[in-house]
Amino acid sequence: MSTNATDICSIKAGATIILEFHEELDRDSVGIDESHKGPCLVYMAPLSSNGVGNVWFKIFEKGYDSKTENWCIDTLDEANGKLRVTIPSDIEDGDYLLRGEIIALHAASDIGGAEIFPNCVQIRVSGGGTAKPSGVAIPGVYKEDDPGIFFDLEADFTTYTIPGPKIYEAKSTPNSILEDGNTTVADNDIGDDDDDDVDEEDDNDSGANINGISGVFQKLVSLLAMITLAFPY
Question: CB–CB of 40/18 below 8 Å?
Answer without folding.
Answer: no
